[in-house]
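Why does this matter for the project? Reviewers at the last site visit asked to see concrete outputs rather than summary tables. In response, this paragraph embeds two records directly. Each consists of the residue sequence and, immediately after it, the corresponding structure tokens. Nothing has been edited or filtered.
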Amino acid sequence: MLNDADRRILKVIQAEGRITNQELANRCGLSPSACFDRLKRLREQGYILGFHALLNPTKLDHALLVFIEVLMDRTTGDVFQEFATSVSVMPEILECHMVAGGFDYLIKVRVRDMEAYRAFLVDTLVHMPGVRETRTYAVLDEVKNSASLPL
């Protein structure tokens, strides 16, 4: 069970993952040793999954963000498993979510440009196990992009 001090720690490190333990302790009103122990416990209990750097996709030649609806030809466990296995090894696919509704998966992809996306779609995605139909939504402007959870 999380208490207020745990939530303060999570809120701060979610925004500033490289903060020192001393600064984190100061900002959360804890001693450095108590803060370190709590942080360690939060990692061990699975509240903190890891720390990542946010990279600028445009500077790294991955400016185009695309969302893709994927409709499967069959909705059986083996087809879902084969699709999930294929998705997991594709670096262009940043996220893949099985969803309820009018299609089966929502995929988030980052590529260089529309030409690179077309190649990904034609050469890779439509040949993946079970894929019957796709719908593409190219992002024109990222209005909000956050991985922070409301605490």
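We now turn to the second protein, recorded in exactly the same manner.
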Amino acid sequence: MPASEQLTPTPGQTVGPFFGYALPFEKGGELVPPGSPNSVKLHGTVYDGNGNPIPDALVEIWQADSNGNIPDETGSLVRDGYTFTGWGRTPVGNTGKYVFSTVNPGPTEPGKAPFFAVAVFARGLMNRLFTRAYLPEDTEALENDALLSSLEPARRKTLIAERLADGSLHWDIRLQGEDETVFLDFHAEG
């Protein structure tokens, strides 16, 4: 076929991912401005099945505000420095590291364990992966959480972030292998 008649390859026919085009946006990891009152850093590394950092993944979070309210504000793609939307997306760096500037989510109901809902987009994945990152402090709420209590202790720990001495939350995401993060399966019933 002459070059003038060739069709443009679709993403499924080319090497990807193409996250650098249109998906990341300015200040995507800043749910609140860094250093603002009550801000906290959620950070970690995305690893592949061999334990190597993945340099081309995207991490998304959704969360309640510090009072446990689910935000319904618009403006997630254009950060104004004042509006908390509860949503962020950030690419990992060349070393697989991601960083969000946010607030500690509050429990959405009394006695519930606060968490970040997380989605991971990465090379080799046909669909994004869903998981959670829980705050480590309320051990009673963690013990009573329906998802966590359905898991063996070794698997449960993959969903609980570590509070560091500086107050930040460290949570690594392992796509496969030893200490693989627990991922959730969402499918339509019907």
